[in-house]
Structures are given as structure tokens and as C-alpha cells.
Amino acid sequence: MSDTTQAFFERLAQRGYEPLLHSVSGTFHWDIEDVGSWFVAVKNGSLTVSRDIVGADCVFACSKEDFDRMVMGKQNPTTLFMQGKMKITGNIGLAQMFQRLFPDESLSVGEQG
Amino acid sequence: MGEKTTISVLEGNNFVVSDLRGDIDASPSEPLGLFAWDTRFLSRWLLTVDGQRPNVLSTDDLDYFYVQFFLVPGTGTIYVDADQSIIRRRAIENGFHEDLTIFNHKDKQVDLKVRIEAASDFADLFEVKDKLTKKGEFYHRIATNRLVLGYRREQFVRETLITASATADIDEHGLSFAVHIEPHGEWTTSLEVVTVLVGFGENQEETTEGQGDPQTRSKMKRSLEKLGEALPRLSSDWPSLQVTYNRSLVDLAALRFYPLTLSGQAMPAAGLPWFMTLFGRDSMIASYQALPFASELAEATLRALAQRQGTRIDDFRDEEPGKIMHEVRFGEMTAFEERPHSPYYGAADVTPFFLILLDEVERWTGNAELVRQLEMEARAALTWIDKYGDRNGDGYVEYERRNKETGLENQCWKDSWNSIQFADGTISRLPRATCEIQGYVYDAKMRCARLAREFWNDPELAARLEKEAAELKRRFNQDYWLEDREFFAIAIDGDGRKVDSLTSNIGHLLWSGIVDEDKAGALVRHLMGPKLYSGWGIRTMAEGEGGYNPIGYHVGAVWPHDNSFIAMGLRRYGYREEAARVAMNMLEAATYFKGRLPEAFAGYRRELTEFPVEYPTACSPQAWASGAPLLLLRAILGLEPIGDNLLVDPAIPTVLGQLELLDIPGRWGRIDAFGRGRVDTSTMGEKLQSSTT
User: Fold this and answer.
1) β-pairing, B156-164 with B186-197?
2) What angle is formed at CA B385 by the lines to CA A77 and CA B347, rounded to 5 degrees?
3) B335 contacts in chain A (CB < 8 Å)
């Protein structure tokens, strides 16, 4: 896999269920600068990922560089938000839970397919 | 107790600390100012009339969110009949709102130059404490009747908006008003000060012009009354108890913090001025203390902490999977990772405490849904205890910080550097396994066994936890017991040695239930004996130990919250009269602070000082000190949920006479508890002291 951003969402889609989000239900829209948008729906930990743009409970916006650094474990999502480099609109409580998906351990040590 | 020199108004993590005139003139190290989200948004706010600062007649700060300052224009001398007087009315909310009114008492018109000097250093609270300098740039904007003070560091932007309702001449240092007042007339302006955190949740948008003081105030009043309606009603034959009870409830209401991540739900922040934020330990302890009165605080606390439970290993934050956080901050230094509080996880006791609180909330409220929703978090917390908490595999939870630069060395409630020391005064080695944490782990496992059986449909987990808890108890009573001194060591240190100072920690062991029945009597003799018992309460460390210092924070001072847990521990092991004495003496101490117990007071013997001496830099109000009288009431009324009933088993000090607590909310609906004071606490000290010497 060549692209960390795309790899992250593809792995999320493959995962299907994430126990860390077992009590979470909601929809997330990631708006990643110069790359595009992803839509993630979570229902009691079950994940669905698409590129369709529909209304979401929580919208994130950040640069690709910062996003990839979060995926690789080089940037903490909370401090990125506190620095004003990641905008979050909508349900902040849900946003907090999404953080649990960072970093992606398999992508944090290098890019794997 | 010195004369009060500052006035605070607060709500959640938004507060203003000013002098008695209502002015703010902060030096870099003075905690005066308007603060929100750990940032100072105003460091200067000075009123002058014709170039003179006014004199104070009086202040009225009966409400925590609203204060009135009554002033007269400065004349250089004080006792001159004033021709004008000034009232500043200030209410807190997303910044503050101030109505400034000047009255002309003469029968001829007057022209005055009124000015408000304003400035902000946008200091992070850590900078206020440590006197550091800023890395970003300051700016200002002037618009119609509005001054904007700003600070920018990369994309981190904070602004203070100051808007006046009256026509003002505005420059970058403040607002000037040319005021004309008719004979016996008055002039007024509203001043709206709004804090803006660009890109930060709800506060990111500029708010509209101020809507006026009465509306702000009534909204807050409603919020307080809403809390009040649900609270149990107290009566007794000792009037001071009512004062303390009311003060505790009002302070806990004032310290309510609304996390951005929980819409509209409030939990206790730790304390004013340094700790107006979410703390794992303080928020849970205050919530636990308040359970019979306002259980919604504990539910919100558990949810907020569950959201932030650790999921990864992160040395900088001392984070580990399943660990419950210690402290979160929102200021610039945290944002730029110059401090680890985003959140910081350096506490070893809070993860088992999280499990204890989860079970206790269910016992009081019957909220099974919460227990099921947090099942995964609870299991992760149990895993943390065995896998990460027990670092060396010896069966005990010990701590040693991962972050060697800015992390905390002691990760128990006694978190100052010198709290865990031997009887000869030498400091113990890391990692340290303090005794009370083992008690909490025992209690957490016993309680989770119940939750696993009744709510998680996992009898195997329940059986395993009970087996582990029993084994922990058996080993603990051998490994930590000091045979010659007849109490438990405060810790086992990194060299495997028993740290042998006599401390209040043994009282927490009674609370947790880890103590063998045949050892409880000896512990109680120590707790109530003259070395630990000051006459006001149980000292953190006993007189006669090498490290003892009556004004040592964790090595001699008396902490109200500590005593409230010990009182519950005494009840658990059947020491009803001793629990009543601890409760009564602490309630007596509260009368010297107008019902508001400080976080700690000095460990001097009661007969030496005759009043409790406040610890020099004590934080006040502080949530777990405000919660202490509530837990003490529970202890003397003997309140314990049993299934769908509330057991009431009073052991009440005689001084209190007839004690009634009516409409206690819980899974039973509402229940009244009452009893008559029959425990004579005035003579117990002599009896107990003579039996130990």
C-alpha cells in the first residue's frame, strides 16, 4: 500500500468490528485537505467505510500530513485539536471515541498492505 | 486565617479572581485574572474615575457566580462623604458580564472621566505558576464599542472580546467613557467580556452582543436551583451542621465542570484556583462522597473518564491501555506538548477506583445500563491492573513514571515527592506499591465479580476475580504487616522493603475491606491514638515518625477527604463510635472555616492551637474537601444500599441531637433517614488515649 491515508481507511473497512468502540454509535466525516473525504459509520463497534458524502454527527478537518502522522503514532489527536490544526464540528464526545483508532499499529511501524 | 484580599466568581473552569474593588492587576505569578480552559484571558481590568482608583465600601459575594462591589471614587483619603458612588455587578458565564453604575448624590450635574484599563497576557496556568514567557505574538483590533485582545501561536488562537453598551472611546489599552450625570441621576454601562478559543468546540464562534446581566444571572440561578430541588433536606439540633451542609452543596455546584465531550452533563472539577479541570482522582472521590445526594455527578464522571481511558503505550503521557487518566488541561503548553496533560495518566490508584465507583453507582442508582455500557472499559481496567499496574508480576500494583522529566514521581493520592518514607525519615525507592492501592484493587475485584455475575453474564470472570481477591487479601495481610508495630506498611518499595511509617493510609485499608478482622482493632487504636489523631482528625503521618511535620502536605497535615474515607472504614469494621468521633471533630473544624473545609489543615494538636490552622497554600474550595461532610453524614447515619433498600444504622454524636436527612434519592425512590445523637464524642479522646499509652 502506497498511501497511509487510504490504507488507514481500507484497514478500517476490513476490520468490520472494533471492540474499543463497542458502546459507540454515530457517523464521522473526515475531510482531509487535498485528498478528499471519507465517511465512517459506527454502530455498536461495527464499522462501515465509504467515500459518499452524507451528513455526519461529527466532522473532522485536517491536513494529510497531520492525518498520516496520527495514523503512524507520531502525532497525538488531542493536541492536534488543541493546537487548532484539526477542526472538529458536531459531537465532540463521539470525536473523542474515534481517537481510539489511532495509531494503526500495523501502519505505525511502516506501510504494509 | 488572614483577611480575605481576593474575590472569586466561578462556574466550571471559567473564573474571575479580582481584588475587593473588582480590579484585576496581575503580576506574572499572581493568580488574579479571568481564566477559562486553563488560560488567562484578562490579566488587567482596572477601573478609574477621573484618574483615581475607587475605594471599597463593601462587597457582596453570597453567590458563587455573582458578586457586587460597592465603591466610592478615590479621593486620597477614605473617610470623606462621597458625592458619587459606584456599583459593579459581575456575573460569570463564558467570560463575564459586568454592569457598571455610577450614582450622583449631589444636587448639581457632574462630568466624569471613567476608564477601564484592559490587557491580557494569555498565560497558560502552568506559566502563571512557573513564571514562563510566551512563544507566540499578541495583537489587538478595535471595532465599534469593542476591543479585541488576541494571541496567536501558529494556528493556536485565543481572543478576549470586550464590548461596552455605552459609547466608548477605545484604544488598545482600554475603554474610556465621557460621563455626564444629572443631579441625583445615574449612569450605567454594561461590559461584556467573552473568551474565544478559535477552533475549540462550542466556544469557537464569536458570541453576540451581551444580553444583559439579569438574564445571565437568572439562568445560573435556575441551574443551581435545579440541583437544589433534588437534594435531600437536612435538619439537626446543631445549627453549624446546616451551614456546613449548605456550603458543601453550593461549592460542589460551583465546581461543576461541563466536559465538551458530554453534552450538558456536569462532573466535579478539583478545586479553585489551580485545579479547575477534570481529574481522575479528585473528580471520582468527590462524586463518591456526593452519591447519596447527587448521583448524577458520579455517572458523568465515569462516562467522561471512560471516554479518555488509555488505549496505547505513551511514555510522555504515562499512558497505558486500560488506564484511567489523572489530569487533563487545555492551555497552550499542553497543546504544544510542553506539558503532558492531554490527558496525563500518571496515577496508579484511579483505575481500581473507577471500578469501585462504577459498582457503587449501580448500588445507589440501579443504573444497569451504565454498567453494561461501560463493560468493555471495566474489563480493560481489570486487565490494566494485572498487566500494567503490576509491573513486576509480584501480584501487587506498583508505580514508576515513564515520563522522567515532567511526570509525577508519586502516583497515589499523596503525590508530593516526600510522602512515602521510612520511619527514620529516609525516602523509599521506586517503584512503590503503596498499601491503599492494594486495598482498592481488592475491593475493585470483589465488586467487579458482582457486576460480572449480575450484568455481564460472565460467572467465570466473577469466580476468577473472587479467587484473585481472596489470594491478594491473604498475601497482603502477611506481606505488608509490621509485626512489631502492629500496623500495615505504607508501601513496599523498589528494594522489596516494607516502608514502615505510621500513616493515615491504614484507614483506607479499612474502607476497602482488605484487612483481616483480627488486625482491625490494632489499626483503630493507632488511628484514634494521640500520634495519628490530632483532635481535629487523623494526620497523614503520625507524630514521632522521622518525616513528621505538622505543616507537611502529606507528612503530617490533616485532610478532610482522607478522614471521611477513614470514617467509612471504621464503620465497615464495626467501629461506630470512633467513626462518629472522626465525623464530629471534622464538622467542628468546619465551623472555623464558615462551613468550607480547606483541602488540608495543620496537624498541630488541638489543645495546642485551639483552632484548626489552614495549610499555607491550601486550595479552596476544593471538591473532595467540600464532599467530606457529605460522606461523614453517610458514615454517622450508617447509610448502605442493600438491594433495592437503603439500610439506615445511625451512630450519631450527641451534640447533633435529632439528625434527619429526608428524601435521600436512589433506586428505592426517596427514603428518609434519622436518628438521635447517643455517642458522646467529647470524652472518647481521653478514653482512647489512655488505653494506648
Assistant:
1) antiparallel
2) 55
3) 79, 82-83
Partner-chain contact A84 B156, CB within 8 Å: yes
B260 and chain A: CB distance < 8 Å anywhere?
A: yes
Using DSSP, state whether B404 is helix, strand or coil.
coil
Strands (DSSP E) found in A11-106: 25-32, 36-43, 46-50, 58-62, 87-90
Enumerate the β-bridge partners of residue B384.
Answer: none
* Cα distance between residue B270 and residue B286, in whole Å: 8
User: What residues of chain B lie within 8 A of the CB of A91, using their CB?
Assistant: 263
Q: What's residue B337's pLDDT?
A: 97
Degrees (nearest 5) of the Cα angle B466, B410, B355?
Answer: 30
Check pLDDT > 90 for residue B457: yes
CB contact under 8 A, A82 and B312: no
pLDDT digits (tens, 9 = 90+) for B252-293: 988 988 888 887 888 999 988 778 889 999 999 999 999 999
Instruction: Tell me the shortest Cα–Cα distance from A39 to chain B, in angstroms.
Output: 21
Helix, strand, coil percentages for chain B (3-state, nearest 5)? 35, 25, 40
Count of Cβ atoms closer than 10 Å to residue B689 Cβ: 15
- Looking at domain B6-216, its CATH class is mainly beta
DSSP annotation of A22: T
| Residue B611 dihedral angles phi and psi, to the nearest 5° | -140, 155
| B342 interfaces chain A, CB cutoff of 8 Å | yes
Q: What number of H helices and E strands is found in chain B?
A: 18, 29
pLDDT digits (tens, 9 = 90+) for B476-493: 999 999 999 999 999 999
Beta-sheet pairing, B669-676 with B658-666: antiparallel
B633, B677, B658, B675: which is closest to B293 by C-alpha? B633
* B313 and chain A in contact, CB less than 8 A: no
Domain with CATH 2.70.98.40 in chain B: 6-216
Which pLDDT score, from 0 to 100, does residue A47 have?
A: 96
Mean pLDDT, residues A80-93? 93
Rounded CA gap, B304 and B266, in Å?
A: 10
Q: Are the C-beta atoms of residues B74 and B54 closer than 8 Å to each other? A: yes
**B67: buried, middle or exposed (CB in 10 Å: 19+, 13-18, 0-12)?**
buried
Interface residue B297 vs chain A (CB under 8 A): no
The CA distance from B391 to the nearest CA of chain A, in Å, is: 23
The residues pairing with B160 across neighbouring beta strands, listed in sequence order, are: B149, B195
Using a CB–CB cutoff of 8 Å, tell me whether B434 touches chain A. Answer: no
Q: What residue spans in chain B does CATH classification 1.50.10.10 cover? A: 230-692
CB contact under 8 A, B156 and A103: no
In chain A, the residue whose alpha carbon lies closest to the alpha carbon of B307 is A97
Q: Read off the pLDDT band of B3 (50, 70, 90).
A: low
Residues 6+ apart with CB under 8 A from B439: B476, B508, B509, B511, B512, B513, B514, B515
Chain-chain contact of A84 with B330 (C-beta, under 8 angstroms): no
Q: B373 to chain A nearest CA, in Å?
A: 6
B457: left (phi over 0), alpha (psi -120 to 50) or beta: left
Residue B11 neighbours by CB distance under 10 Å: 24
- What amino acid is encoded at A62 in this protein? C
> Which CATH fold topology does B230-692 show?
Glycosyltransferase (1.50.10)
The band of B9, judged by pLDDT with boundaries at 50, 70 and 90, is confident
For A4-101, the fitting CATH number among 3.40.50.2300, 3.40.50.1980, 3.30.1050.10, 3.40.50.300 is 3.30.1050.10
Distance from CA of A55 to the nearest CA of B (A): 18
Asked if B373 has any chain A CB less than 8 Å from its own CB, the reply is yes
What distance in Å separates the CA atoms of residue B350 and residue B611, rounded to the nearest whole number?
Answer: 33
With residue B358 as reference, give the H or E element that holds it: helix B350-365
